[in-house]
Specification:
Shape: globular
Distance between the termini: 23 Å
Mean pLDDT: 97
Strand order of the largest sheet: 1-2-4-3-5-6-7-8
CATH superfamily: Alpha/Beta hydrolase fold, catalytic domain
CATH topology: Rossmann fold
Number of strands: 8
CATH architecture: 3-Layer(aba) Sandwich
Radius of gyration: 16 Å
Number of domains: 1
Strand content: 15-25%
Helix content: 25-40%
CATH class: Alpha Beta
Structural class: alpha/beta
Length: 230
C-alpha cells in the first residue's frame, strides 16, 4: 500500500520515510514512530492500517542518522543490534532525531492537505512520541505504546502541549508498574491505560503479542485520534 519517500530535516539531513495513503481524502495524518527494529514489515503494516482507517501515515526512519536501511526481526541478536543503534541516536547532539520527527510532522500535514497531525510510537518510538508531544510543533494528539523510559522522573518532568494517550502492560519488566503509577499522578490530564500484557504486546511478530490487549488499545487509539484529529 505504501512507498518510501525522502524527508529533509531542518539541518539539511535527508532520511527515508514509509508513507501509506488512504484511498480517498485523508481525514487526518499520523506519524508512526518505530521500535528499535527499524521501519520493518511490522511498522509498515501499522502504517498501512492507519491508511486503511483513512489517515495519511508517515513512518520516518529514525535510525538513519546512525545507520541506514535498518530492518530487523525480533530475535535476541536483533534486539542487541537495535539497542546499539538506539544508543547511537540517543547520543547525537541535540536536537538529533527530533528534527527528523519534526520533518515528518510537517510533511504529513502538508501531504494531507493541511489536516491535523497525530503521532503514535512503540517502545523507543513511544518515548520519542512523548518527547514530541512536549517539544515539537504541529501535533494535535499523541499516543505512546509502552514508551521505554518515559515514566522516569526526568521524562515525566516534561509537559505535553497536545492531548496524550499512553498504553502500558502490567507484565512489562522494562517499565516498572510503580513508575507508571507515578507518571499517572504527575500527569492527570494524560489518558493512561494499563493492560494485562507484556512489553511489545501490540506487535503480532513478537512472542509477547497479546491479541486482546492490542485490539482494545487500537480501538482506544482510533477513538482518541477521531476526537482530536477530526
Amino acid at each position: 500500500m505504501g512507498q518510501f519517500i525522502n524527508l529533509t530535516a531542518a539541518d539539511g539531513f535527508t532520511l527515508p520515510a514509509y508513507v501509506a495513503a488512504p484511498a480517498g481524502k485523508a481525514k487526518g495524518a499520523v506519524v508512526v514512530l518505530q521500535e528499535i527494529f527499524g521501519v520493518n514489515s511490522h511498522i509498515q503494516s501499522v502504517a498501512d492500517g492507519y491508511a486503511a482507517a483513512g489517515y495519511l501515515a508517515v513512518a520516518p526512519a529514525t535510525f538513519h542518522r546512525a545507520q541506514a536501511g535498518v530492518d530487523l526481526g525480533y530475535t535476541e541478536a536483533d534486539m542487541g543490534i537495535g539497542f546499539g543503534f538506539k544508543t547511537a541516536v540517543d547520543a547525537l547532539p541535540a536536537p538529533g532525531v527530533m528534527q527528523d520527527i519534526q520533518a515528518a510532522i510537517a510533511y504529513a500535514g502538508s501531504a494531507a492537505d493541511g489536516a491535523k497531525v497525530g503521532i503514535v510510537g512503540y517502545c523507543w518510538g513511544g518515548l520519542l512520541t512523548w518527547r514530541s508531544a512536549c517539544a515539537l510543533s504541529g501535533l494535535s494528539a499523541a499516543v505512546s505504546y509502552y514508551g521505554g523510559g518515559m515514566t522516569t522522573a526526568e521524562e515525566s518532568a516534561r509537559q505535553p502541549t497536545c492531548p496524550v494517550l499512553a498504553h502500558f502492560g502490567n507484565k512489562d519488566h522494562w517499565i516498572p508498574l510503580d513508575s507508571v503509577e507515578a507518571f499517572k499522578l504527575a500527569h492527570p490530564d494524560v489518558a493512561v491505560h494499563i493492560y494485562e500484557a507484556d512489553h511489545g504486546f501490540n506487535c503480532d511478530q513478537r512472542g509477547s503479542y497479546n491479541e486482546a490487549a492490542a485490539k482494545l488499545a487500537l480501538e482506544r487509539t482510533h477513538a482518541f485520534f477521531a476526537k482530536h484529529l477530526g
